[in-house]
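Quick start: read one record
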Amino acid sequence: MIVDPLTLAAFLPAALALNLTPGADMMFCLAQGLKGNRRAAVAASAGVSAGVMLNIVLAGLGLGALVAASPNLFATIRWIGVAYLVWLAIRTLRSPHELGASGKAMKSPARAFREGFLVNVSNPKVILFILAFIPQFVDPARGSVLGQFLIFGSVISIGGFVINAAVGWFAVGLGGVLVRSQRTERLLRYLSASVFGLLALKLATERHA
């Protein structure tokens, strides 16, 4: 098996924690639900997941080429990832979550899918985060780096689809509590920052064979 079962078992809760952490993609899907459009919320989540898989492929191809050319660059990418995660934690802590201009009602599920896809792939921070997170679990000695990226990326993509779609679906009934309550917003922001900070610490202290 290209991925060690124990590594995959450790990856699952980490991926779940990331999928549960509020971010731009989740807020985008939430916006569709807040506008009373459950079908658009699910379609937007599917588009986001498709964008994630495209970023996974691009990241896996690029990282595979780097590892083949110089294994030392793998460590360099990891430290760049540490710096990015720390910056992201600080920025998340200081910046309230906002829906943004893309949080408008969608006219059709097809359009919602396209918009969700574009929201994800047009954000360069997504691929940077992928390169910061997934290499913690990739072992070049076990074979294809791209293959491992696809396995781990599929877990993130599928989990993200389910969670983001659920957030959008149930937002219709919740009436936007998550974005109207300042106390809840602060709690979500602190949770996001904590997750990013702990990931940075894990990435900085672990060594890969």
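Confidence is low (pLDDT under 50) at residues 99-106.
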